[in-house]
Amino acid sequence: MSELILIVDDERHYRELIKINLETEGYTTLEAENGEQLLQLLEKQQPDLILLDVLMPNMDGLAACDLIRQFSNVPIIFLTALSNEIDRVKGLNL
């Protein structure tokens, strides 16, 4: 059974690009376009890894991660264009 990776990004073309590359390498993927969809999927699925965009509307990736950490220790890799130190520190604190 291949590892399940959940891709969360509000930009469809980024999700598709990541999905194509991961599936080419043999991974199984799920997609969510926002934090709310992510949380709904986590009620039904337990991924091995979450690739989580930080900058999303309604619920950003940091807020979604904070909620996930209340019930799961699934590894999370943040996807972001943010590069300043304060944003990195916020992500590391989660």
Description:
- This protein has a four-stranded parallel β-sheet with strand order 2-1-3-4.
- The mean pLDDT is 89.
- The protein is globular and about 30 Å long.
- It has helices spanning 12-24, 35-44, 61-68, 85-93, and strands spanning 4-8, 28-32, 49-53, 76-79.
- Strand 1, helix 1 (12-24) and strand 2 form a beta-alpha-beta unit.
- Helices cover 43% and strands 20% of the residues.
- The protein has one domain (4-93): Rossmann fold.
- With 94 residues, the protein is an alpha/beta fold.
Biggest sheet overview: 4 strands, parallel
Cα radius of gyration in angstroms: 13 Å
CATH class, please? Alpha Beta
The CATH superfamily bears the name Response regulator
Provide the residue-averaged pLDDT.
89
| Shape type | globular
Content of β-strand: 15-25%
Give the low-confidence spans.
none
| Count of folded domains | 1
Distance between the termini: 29 Å
Task: Please report the total strand number as a whole number.
Answer: 4
CATH topology: Rossmann fold
Q: How is this fold's topology laid out?
A:
Layout: E1 4-8, H1 12-24, E2 28-32, H2 35-44, E3 49-53, H3 61-68, E4 76-79, H4 85-93
Parallel strand pairs: 1-2, 1-3, 3-4
Task: Sum this structure up briefly.
With 94 residues, this protein is an alpha/beta fold. The protein has helices at 12-24, 35-44, 61-68, 85-93, and strands at 4-8, 28-32, 49-53, 76-79.
Task: Summarize this structure as a short list of keywords or feature phrases.
94 residues; alpha/beta; Rossmann fold; four-stranded parallel beta sheet; 4 helices; 20% strand
